[in-house]
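Thread: Newbie trying to understand structure tokens

Hi all, I'm a second-year student working on a class project, and my supervisor (Dr. K.) asked me to get a predicted structure for one chain before our next meeting. I've only ever worked with sequences, so writing a 3D structure as a token string is new to me. If someone could post the tokens and maybe explain what I'm looking at, I'd be very grateful. Here's the chain:
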Amino acid sequence: MESRHHEQAHGHGHDHHHASGQLSGSAFRWSIVLNSGLTALQLVIGVAFGSLALIGDALHNLGDVIGLALGWGADRLSRRPARGRFTYGYGRSTQMASLINGLLIFAAGAVVVVEAIQRLFHPVPLLAGPVAWAAAAGIVINLLSARLFGHDHHHDLNQQAAVLHLLTDAAVSVAVLFSALVVGATGWLWLDAVTAIGVGGAVIWSALGLLREAIALNLDAAPRHVDLGQVEQALASLPAVLEVEELHVWGLSTSRTALTAHVVIDPQLLESEALSRDQLLALARTRLAELGIRKSTLQLETSEAP
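---
Reply by user tm_fold:
Sure, no problem. This is what the structure looks like when written as tokens:
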């Protein structure tokens, strides 16, 4: 098959409008404020009243604050226009922030597990009442913070990482609350350590999933929400298209997706459809946008039968 013509089309756009950026910035800002206060409260009460599980929750909340700050900074940086050597802009910073967040979550979980195992062999007295109240505050604040991000975080790994932090912490606080209530009723001091081990294990498990996806995106894997078969079919089903070659899809950031492809067309079929090349390219960009891809480079290759 002989390629006789090449034509490029560039689709430009952003997956998030300016208003969306303001909303995510506000969500990050208020989540940092709320979780900073919660971390201080839980650390003070955990140390003062002897709950390792609550201290573990506080350490994870501290990781949240650091992670949220990184995520917020990366989110703002990703919205800056391309300049100089950074011809793709700064969107990759959100992927780097997601990777760092995953490492922070994993480290926090590992610290809690190690400390909890040591506490099993050396129990300490625990005053359940203040610990239970601090855990209840953690549930409310983390769920409220996660709610601030709304439903827009599902296709943005950076925001998804922040929400995962918060929801995991809410689950951790539920476990700490239950443990404090049972310890207060039974005097089983070992239960606080066992709960802390479970908490640390859950935190590590959540971190592994986040790390796996963050590493994949940093290696230019196609984002999970993009169905490659559906994308190829969308291009292949266009009028006069014979074949789609060299299809590449990757994330410019945790919320922006790019695509390049060679599209082989039959000029006679294109003429019979009364379409120009520009119209075909416009139709292709529209279909790709419907699939969440608004940054595309398509190269048309004209092929004729010998």
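A couple of things are worth pointing out once you decode it. The two ends are 8 Å apart (CA to CA). The mean pLDDT is 79. Feel free to ask follow-ups in this thread.
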